[in-house]
Amino acid sequence: MDKALWVVRDKITTKGAIDDLMADATTRGIHDVVVQVRGRGDAYYASRLEPRAESLTGEFDPLAHLVRAGAAVGVRVHAWGNVFFVWSSPEGALPKAPEHLVRRHPEWLLRPAGVKYLDPVGGSDWEGIYIDPKNEDAREHTLAVFTDIVSRYRVEGFHYDYVRYPQVTYAGSPDDHAAVTAFVAEGAKRLRAARPGLVISAAVFPDPEVARDRVLQRWPEWARAGLVDLLCPMAYRRETVEVSRLLSKARAAAPQTRMWGGLMAYAGERALLGEQVRAVKDAGCEGAILFAYDTTQRDLLDIFAAA
Q1: Residue 118 has pLDDT above 90, yes or no
Q2: What CATH number corresponds to the domain at position 217?
Q3: Considering its fold, how many domains does the chain have in total?
Q4: Which of 99, 73, 69, 100 is nearest to 87 (CA)?
Q5: Rounded to whole angstroms, how far apart are CA atoms 85 and 135?
Q6: What range defines the domain where residue 177 resides?
């Protein structure tokens, strides 16, 4: 069974951190890492289209080093980009860079019930500021960003996250799912043209009915249409029986599409993680992917890799 790691952007800000990631993966036989290089409408790589991430210093290019380091040790790097979710801040601050799309194109932002924008702090049912999936200019910009990444960096794949509405209540109509699917369809065309053989993947709500009705994410349709090559249903539950139920339901909804069951790394829960990796296999998934890589939890990496 394949094993993969989701790697959040704060774990790739230095060469040393990336070298540690590659060592942690290879020593455990993990050969795929899904690395967040577009977290909040910003760039953890060299970009002419979006501002450099505020947490980066100097001229270091994390994605370039990831690709080089991965090639040297046999680890496949999948570039992970948040799609419609473009900014958040616990302090409620807006981006510092004037060229950030939140500041440069406020007309692109999702504005439920006429509000100025979703609060950067987030709330009980949204994470922060989103672009409006129905805005064609916003979708075009995002597609240009992703195409730029795969055309200039020799990545194994491109991974969509937040390819959905925050909640259906923030859409104008339940039919607005068509805008999300339009993005995925156009992305399949452009990204595959830019890098033939690219693996297009998506992190999705694991229950297809919940995904469809709550966040307008119709991923079984994407699978049937061949718009994605790999699905990662996020079965983040402490109860293994619920992980099994969700992943079995996801597998049945997309029986022909490669699937990695997404698991949460709960601190200190080594036995639980081993149990849940086995549940992923029993559900018929081709692999498991762990959220998220953390150097303070190498004991969980050991369990994840061995289970």
Answers
A1: no
A2: 3.20.20.80
A3: 1
A4: 100
A5: 14
A6: 2-85+135-306
